[in-house]
Amino acid sequence: MGSLGGDMKRIGFVLLVLFFGMAIFPASANNGHSNCRHGPYIESGKWIKRFGKMTLAVVPTKCGRNLHFGKTNEAFNELKRKFGNSPHWYNTKGMRNQFDCHVDIARNKDKWNLDPYRKHVGYRATKKAGCNPQ
Question: Going edge to edge, which strands form the sheet with 42-50?
Fold first, then answer.
């Protein structure tokens, strides 16, 4: 009977671990990526003046913050649809590099400042410059 009691305790322990494990990590959880396949990725954006130049201050949604790096096409296209008709929008390649850089290394910043006046230097140089190439 001692062996059976030990087995019951182990089974009870396993059941508790399974139960609480599912409570902490429910099957529907997907590390913030669930229901984000098609956005929206951009909560808001506003053209503001910083350092005497116009900047697009972008606030991403939770989906936007949880994008996988390399899967940013749809999100950037949403941004361009919403703000690309502005006379302040130019240097799309440079802004794209800054956007991708924020997804890669600065996703948790409150807002992402995308500066069309910054040179298009390529993604690697943009990242090396902390998303703000000179």
Answer: 42-50, 53-60, 112-114
Identify whether the C-beta of residue 49 lies closer than 8 Å to the C-beta of residue 117. no
Cα separation, 47 vs 113, in Å, equals: 9
**Residue 15 carries which side chain, given as an amino acid letter?**
L
**What sign does the dihedral 57-61-62-67 (CA atoms) show?**
negative
Which residues, including other chains, have CB under 8 Å from residue 32's CB and lie 6 or more apart? Answer: 62, 63, 65, 66
The pTM (predicted TM-score) of the whole model is: 0.74
pLDDT digits (tens, 9 = 90+) for 42-83: 999 999 999 999 999 999 999 999 998 888 999 999 999 999
Nearest to 112 by CA among 86, 87, 75, 81: 75
